[in-house]
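Repro:
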Amino acid sequence: MRALRTPSAIAAVSLFTLLILVTVLAPLLLDGPATARDVNGMRAGMTSEHWLGTDGAGRDVLARVLIATRLSLGLAVLTTAIGVVLGTLLGCSPAVLPRRASRLVIAFINVMVAVPGLLLALFLAVLFGVGARGAVLALALAMTPNIARLTHTLAASVQSAEYVQAARMLGASKARIIGRHIVPNIAGPLIVAATVAVGSNLLAFAGLSFLGFGVQLPSYDWGQLLNEGLDQIYVNPAAALAPGVAILLAGVTFTMLGEYCTTALGTSATGGSPRRSAATVATATTVAATDDGSQVPRRDASTARVARRRPDAAELRAVGLTVVADGSDGPVQLVRNVSLSLAPGEIVGMVGESGSGKSLTALAMAQLDAPPLRVTAQRLEFAGEELQQMSDAERRRLLGTGLAMVFQDPQTALNPMLRVGRQLAEVAEVHAGVDRSDAHQLAIDRLGAVRIPAPDRRARQYPHEFSGGMRQRAVIAMGLMGDPRVILADEPTTALDVSVQKRILDLLVDVADQRAATVLLISHDVAVVSQLADRVVVMYAGRIVEDLPAADLVSGAAHPYTRALIASVPDLSTDRSRPLPTIPGGPPDPRAMPAGCAFASRCSRAEERCREVDPELVQLTPKHRVACWNSHIAMADQEPR
């Protein structure tokens, strides 16, 4: 309702209401004057009886103009509806087609957008033949490329959203992802474009009728009346001007209505209510609820977790994992030859600067990297199964319930157009074939399991009605809808305050304990990872440079980069009068990776060999790997902090 407070919005809604009233009432009230022929008053000018005069058959011009509103608006709306449907389907098709076919579709859209719409409409009108049906098809097809281009652009931006990635990981089909997650979230701009297009199509249709391609006698629309009135422009100008004014007024109305829709939909998305992705947990997860502000979570259940570990093969293992993107000068390696194994029940922390490849590595291991990124690996196993040898359906079935992803920003990890309970229930519907009501009840149980209060009521709410911490809990609950063996947490507390961070991290530990699940925790915070994880993996410039037990991180780190990260973390003994230590320089550009060690330009221990040959990741001890030529010097120089 806030959008109606502006004069332009009030004018748009008022004019639109007037058009609707004329459309409904004019044929009922004015059919007699519009069809009655006055032989003595043919082509008469404006009189008290005929305010805008009469046409060549003596019929009242004003009545015919008002009655023509229904056909004119109806054809314009029908044309727009067909064009929007075709354009939306065409614009979404690249998301479901193979890569080569999608490129051809995109190229076709780009070429057709370059063709003037009116010329295309005239050409198609000739092909389809004269008449309202041919004109509708011609104008609908003429507007389809523009709607398709808009749809493709919007869909491409939504496709990278985390809730779409989550739906893809859960095994939802491409059609389901488009229908439930992409189209509803781009509906706002499409509605605005469609509203404005009605006005444009109204004018275009009138033009085709004026030229004789559109509505044919005895039916008539504003374009037909404009053609008839042009013959008496010098005798009775009102007969020609009236349909022209009607076209102008209706076109302006829909343009203003489009601006109103832009404001109204924008308000709804940000502050209002949006219009719209197993067994029950036997015991609720215990979550610490202290408000002491401490950022370091407890590890009270670590003993239980270690006891429940299974000594068999790794839950998730990658050997020689590489992620490549196509650049202007050729392929660019973003993740370089990463080998990582996550043991059952283990919590592994992954740290490194922004751009070091942490998130890309996790997404690649979860098979969530989409084109133009290309993922290759010598081996990529989940629960002992080689993922690269599976079909898409088999991979979705395995990962959809066995692997859970907790994204960095819970606001983007949940579809803003769907209720929270509906998104959680989708997991059970897709993978377990549970009916809608049972899946909804299961979603409520899972929300209760992550200690969300009043889960029944919360399940019926939208994500914007949750706090940041509750949204993150809901994302964890979504992962629990299956039976996750591995939880990938990509900086799950970055957007939250300190007290909420502690609760979320405690919850992750408790979930891992309850289910003996493996957790990969990605974070910038070395202090949190060192307290929470069993093992710490350090990444730099797209590769692992060190992998060691968390207990040895402070005293046993061998790589200069790891030691520099630790040194930059303040503690109670830090001298507050001095600036915090920083790492000089910056990470190398992936497009111009140096021949030797990527950290050499920032390392005080670097020597000639470091700049010429990149060190391999070697086993320093049975539980400690490092990629550094001078690791022995680093170990010798370690000083207690």
